[in-house]
Design a protein that fits this description.
- The chain folds into two domains: 4-65 and 157-178, no CATH class; 73-144, DNA Binding (I), subunit A (Orthogonal Bundle).
- The protein has helices at 24-32, 73-79, 130-136, 141-144, 157-171; strands at 8-12, 18-23, 36-47, 50-58, 94-97, 100-103, 106-110, 125-129.
- With 181 residues, it is an alpha+beta fold.
């Protein structure tokens, strides 16, 4: 049961607009407090008569302000879909390095290294596995002959919604009809 209440739940506004993703534990609290209803569930009973929700809808409309996303490590990883922007390895997967399987751990990499004037800003930061970050060293991707999979940019309201759709479709197919994919 412990792992089950950590599962991801899609949160819809009262208007059925997807607004966020939260842990099932918090979604259950909203349902018990009668602030949300379950639209979809995982088919697992967590309490008598209460199934583990997969999608919840808020009972009253919540105004969600348009905001610019804050530049944080976790937002960079989310923007880059938890993939190394050099080799494409996914956080937590296994990669063979020097003939040995190694668990992929992401780090932040400055495209233009800090030592050469690179700034801590959206278009200069990417997620990179430790191996690729070390291999690139104090060089630009061009100098290291390590092309980027995607050019980085800041998160906008549009890219934030796109990320919600991409994460949602990978997380649970029951979410698809709510994400306008």
């Amino acid at each position: 049961m412990g792992n089950m209440i950590q599962k991801a739940v899609l949160v819809l506004n009262a208007s059925y607009e997807p607004i966020s993703i939260m842990k099932a534990r918090n979604a259950i609290k909203l349902i018990v407090k009668n602030r949300a209803v379950a639209e979809e569930d995982y088919g697992v009973e967590v309490y008598p008569g209460l199934l583990l929700p997969s999608v919840i809808r808020l009972r009253s409309y919540k105004h969600v302000p348009i905001r610019i996303s804050i530049l944080t490590r976790s937002n960079i990883y989310a923007r880059d879909r938890y993939l190394c922007q050099y080799c494409g390895a996914k956080e937590g997967s296994t990669k063979v390095v020097n003939g040995k399987p190694v668990r992929v751990v992401l780090t932040l990499d400055h495209i233009l290294p800090e030592s050469r004037g690179g700034k801590f800003q959206w278009d200069n930061l990417i997620s990179a596995c430790k191996f690729c970050n070390s291999k690139k060293g104090d060089r630009t991707p061009e100098e290291a002959k390590m092309p980027l999979l995607h050019q980085p940019g800041s998160l906008t309201i549009h890219t934030s919604r796109m990320l919600l759709r991409l994460v949602g479709l990978e997380e649970d197919q029951r979410w698809a009809k709510y994400l306008y994919a």
